[in-house]
Amino acid sequence: MTKVHKPYVLFEEKDHKFVWLGLDESEYEKGVLTNQYLIVHGDKGVLLDPGGYFVFERVYENVKEFVNPNNIVAILYSHQDPDVVGSLNLWLDMTPEAKIYVSALWERFLPHLGTVGGIKFVDLPDQGMDIKVTEDFSVKAIPAHFMHSPGNFHYYDPIAKIYFSGDLGAAMYPEGKWYLFVEDFEEHKKFMEPFHRRYIATRRAIDVWLKKIKGLEINIIAPQHGSIFQGENVKKFIEWINSLDKVGIDLME
Ligand SMILES: [Fe+2]
Ligand SMILES: [Fe+2]
Description:
Blueprint: E1 4-5, E2 8-13, E3 16-20, E4 23-24, E5 37-41, E6 44-48, H1 56-64, E7 72-76, H2 82-85, H3 88-94, E8 99-103, E9 121-124, E10 129-134, E11 137-143, E12 153-157, E13 162-164, H4 185-199, H5 203-213, E14 220-222, E15 229-230, H6 232-243
């Protein structure tokens, strides 16, 4: 597999962009395929789950097409997994202005990646918060605990109306299969179901999350693995996750 995919702009209006940061399908050989995203507002940038160590070069090169890394003001982490935070040290060197946002549960664990010097952490409280990027733009950190991590956040861009869902909505494909947008939702479900059944801690986590996102206007759901949901598929995804009656501990004997 040698297919390399260029970044794709999911939303663009005036000085605001929401960008999917490309993929090299050969990354499959090193670990599960991951999506990274960048929000650009004016000359400022916000990175969403920039990923593991081995994707850094691809992500960094693609970010530079859209924003000066010196102007990245925030790196937002959904949770603590290696495929999310593995490149932290490399990003710290390249983004002197960035603050690192992560659940308060994980802040004390991340320095074990071997970070040298102080990290500008912002601990996200369990209830979430608005993250001010500029005077006229904030990203919402939405709690999604136990789906799957105990300290887990999604991020909502209210200008693009794009909901970054971290591992929620993840799809795992067999080697050689990959597509950027979900087209056939029925077919797509089978690539999502095993992950969601095993990793989400309990059905109650889904109920709590559904309440948190009520009223949010979502045009696109952008997950950290697999494919992007847009249009009708946003609703279909929410209906599907609501249809999972038992997950995680609910299924354990
Ligand atoms: Fe994860
Ligand atoms: Fe992940």
